[in-house]
Write a structure and sequence with these properties.
- The protein is built from eight helices and nine strands.
- With 237 residues, the protein is α/β, with parallel strands linked by helices.
- The strands form three sheets. Strands 3-4-5-6 form a four-stranded parallel beta sheet. The protein has a three-stranded parallel beta sheet with strand order 7-8-9, with no helix packed on it.
- The protein has one domain.
- 31% of the residues lie in helices and 15% in strands.
Length: 237
């Protein structure tokens, strides 16, 4: 499904089409195609790189980093407040992302105990921002973040098949029931998307994931905070 995005910031007044202020950021999805029911913007496969990241750094650390980021992908696997400013002012950060190797798709929280409309809104924002920066010429790896099971099919219809995808597991697989939930989630994703590889910000070390690793390529990246703590401990020793 494709829309003329000019009409997304227009309104009818006395039978005439007039432009209205784009306070709802229609520009984020300019040129996009959309899913059938909820009209999530679809991430084109052409936006997704074929090579895996060399490094991944969270936005809240990268934004103040003065070194070279040309080989570093930026992620938002952190509390929402640490990157909310991107959602409020997406154009302001366009030049920053141009300095980087690319982005892992956005990860505004989607919790199953949220109302359905809020879950959908968060999913839409994650996809819209990912689409926007991809359309700016940045490489983007779609982040798979969904809510309740019933929302997953349409969300996955916005993700290209056969490309790299990303997940963030850091802090989410401490307990056995969480591991089983992740197993079922990943099993379904692999079946539906047939990804060329899965970028994991965190780990999947538990034996429960062994069979999944036989059906897909997983590339695990240690979270920045873990690397930082190791470095601090090493310096102390």
């Amino acid at each position: 499904m494709k829309h003329n995005n000019e009409y997304r910031n227009s309104a009818m007044l006395y039978g005439k089409l007039i432009q209205v202020p784009d306070s709802f950021q229609a520009f984020l999805v300019k040129g996009a195609e959309f899913t059938k029911e909820e009209e999530y913007p679809i991430i084109p496969g052409a936006f997704v790189p074929t090579e895996i990241p060399q490094k991944i750094m969270p936005f809240q650390k990268a934004i103040s980093y003065r070194g070279d980021l040309s080989e570093t992908y930026i992620c938002t696997y952190s509390p929402d407040e640490s990157f909310e400013r991107i959602r409020q002012h997406p154009r302001r950060y366009a030049d920053f992302f141009k300095r980087t190797a690319g982005l892992i798709g956005f990860d505004f929280s989607v919790h199953t105990d949220m109302s359905l409309i809020k879950q959908k809104a968060q999913m839409n924002d994650n996809l819209s921002l990912t689409y926007f920066y991809g359309a700016q010429g940045n490489k983007v790896i779609p982040n798979i973040r969904c809510g309740v099971d019933e929302l997953l099919p349409e969300f996955l219809s916005a993700i290209p098949r056969g490309t790299l995808i990303a997940i963030g597991t850091h802090g989410f697989i401490k307990y056995q029931y969480e591991k089983y939930e992740w197993y079922c989630f990943l099993e379904r994703i692999i079946k539906e998307l047939e990804p060329s590889g899965i970028i994991v910000y965190g780990s999947l070390k538990d034996p429960i994931f062994y069979t999944l690793k036989q059906s897909a390529h997983f590339y695990c990246y240690e979270p920045w905070i873990s690397e930082h703590r190791k470095g601090a401990k090493s310096n102390v020793d």
